[in-house]
Amino acid sequence: MRLDRLRIQALRCLHEVDLALAPGINVFVGANGAGKTSVLEAVFLLSHARSFRSAAREALLARGAPRLSVFAELRKADDRLLRMGLGREASRWEARLEGEDTSLGELIAECAVTCFEPGSHALIAGAAEERRRFLDWGVFHVEHTFLDNWRRYQRALKQRNSLLRAGMEPGSPLYGPWETELAGLADWIDSQRRGYLECLRPVLHACIAALLPELGAPELRYRRGWVDERDLHEQLEIQRGRDLARGHTSLGAHRADWSMSFEHAPQREHLSRGQEKLVALGCMLAQARLYADQHKDWPIICLDDLASELDEAHQAAVIAQLVESGAQVLVTGTGLPEPLRGLTHCLFHVEQGHLTPLL
Predict the structure, then answer these.
(1) Is 247 flagged in the annotation as binding?
(2) Is 176 in the same domain as 277?
(3) d(CA 15, CA 68)
(4) According to the annotation, is 31 in a ligand binding site?
(5) Residue 274 is part of a domain; what is its CATH number?
(6) In terms of DSSP H, where are the helices of 49-145?
(7) For the chain, what is the domain count?
(8) Is 209 among the annotated ligand-binding positions?
(9) Which alpha helices (DSSP H) does the chain contain, by range?
(10) How confident is the model over 244-298, as pLDDT tens digits?
(11) What b/e sequence results for 223-237 when a residue is b if at least 16 CB atoms lie within 10 Å of its CB, and e otherwise?
(12) Phi, psi of 141, deg, nearest 5
């Protein structure tokens, strides 16, 4: 898939942007703070309904603007053109497909974007939430009912946590219905995650081995969030007293995690920051490649500040892979990355939120 056109209004410093994008490599160059990353952020919003930046959602909106919007014309592999838009006013997102109101789930199911950016090493070194998001995005694009079931799970979790914070005694029958709901949905979510990881594992191993052969064979470990040998419903009932003291539910699908280890780096602490970035990049490329295998259509690839995140040899290796794949690639930098010189690309200069095509 690719974006033929992208229109952005009132997103950070981008007040009014209207771009025609090339099907291959698109490069955005300019000084720091010019708005390059915000272009990628707009594209990422269409696929995730959230930013890859950690800043508060309110910071997305340009100062003084009442509303932000992102509109795109998305070209699918079968040459079908899909018009889609996402808007935010106050605290509410609004989604549209082909001019009609739609749900966020239906919108993000149509657009797939993967992104490598300066914070991507958090996928390896950060909190488990980042790794669950990565995993669940992949699952969602295989099984679209995942989102509804995950929301049902979150509602049941919220209800059980409310009982715990209210100090409800462990023997109260009020826990039972919510724990039954939690356990059943957690089993389903866990099954979907395991199935996705089994498909991802060989692709992930190949992508990371190509980037970091010196680390030896990679190994992927998954923890579902509760003890394998016992039923979650039973464990939740047993755990009520301890959870009551903590004020939250300590077992379930919301506690799942996964990790990578290597033959010559069995602990994450053995990896340098540069190696963490390369492992995260390998995960992103593997997820994109698996999506392409499953859907016969590559996702859009965003590479933010590529030259400062990777050495030139790894830049060249990644660019070569993506050129061969035929994916649409959006790259940012203070200048044109060296490996792109001599390759066909579309170049945009970004200055104070204004974009000018150069080539």
Answers:
(1) no
(2) yes
(3) 9
(4) yes
(5) 1.20.1050.90
(6) 104-110, 122-125, 128-140
(7) 2
(8) no
(9) 36-48, 104-110, 122-125, 128-140, 146-165, 175-211, 232-246, 273-295, 306-309, 312-325
(10) 999 999 999 999 999 998 888 887 777 888 899 999 999 999 999 999 999 999 9
(11) ebbbeeeeebbebbe
(12) -80, 0
